[in-house]
């Protein structure tokens, strides 16, 4: 009888230990390998998507990113003029990113991380061509959607004059830097956005706050994001306040190069290297 009691006690203790271990595993932060595998699988899925699906999703993302300019301009226009106004108004910059990411739309700067991991692992021309296909389709779709939003902002009466004035101010601010400075600010923007994408798979209930805070940093620091910024400068050009060649060569091109460099080298390559160096990739 005593042996049966001891056996039941032993089993109960073992069950409690297993339950504690399960709870510990659930509470433990995911390893670099888990983050890598999750992002790698997402990248492989994106590379399998047909170009038509990528284009329509990218077009939707370009239109949605217009909300960043609209929300920031609205907050700036209707908040009282004070030193703290930019700190509050910049939260509007996060609006477009929230919609795009939560709706799973295709944004070019997210794709400087996810499809690059399969390329770094496979190291073949077929994957490189597929990555370039995805980039070309998504970038063209994002810029097309952004251009449509810029034309609406510049040429319709959808917004009050004080709000339209803020659209132009945002575009002028984005255009004020030279090629080199825009390139550098683009690298920082690409780095922050790719870091955000790296964090999101296990952000869980903090997902919205991760998006808001990371993109807020991009906005308040005036880092050059090729899609969000292009909508601002396209609006300026559509209103005749800047030439189209200046917009393309002084902002879009350096911001694009910077975003690619920041996302690919500072996040994708470094995170791939740290996992490979730890012999964690099979």
TrEMBL record:
Record-level Gene Ontology MF annotations: formate transmembrane transporter activity
Stretches that traverse the bilayer: 53-71, 83-103, 131-154, 174-201, 208-231, 251-270
Subcellular localization, as worded in the UniProt entry: Membrane
Keywords: Membrane, Transmembrane, Transmembrane helix
Stretches with biased composition (Basic and acidic residues): 1-29
InterPro entries: Aquaporin-like, For/NO2_transpt
Domain of life of the organism encoding this protein: Bacteria
Membrane topology: Multi-pass membrane protein
Disordered: annotated span: 1-31
Signal sequence interval, chain numbering: none
Gene3D superfamilies for the chain: Glycerol uptake facilitator protein (1.20.1080.10)
Main location: membrane
GO cellular-component term (any): plasma membrane
PANTHER family: FORMATE TRANSPORTER-RELATED, INNER MEMBRANE PROTEIN YFDC
Name recorded for this polypeptide: Formate/nitrite transporter family protein
Provenance organism: Hymenobacter rubripertinctus
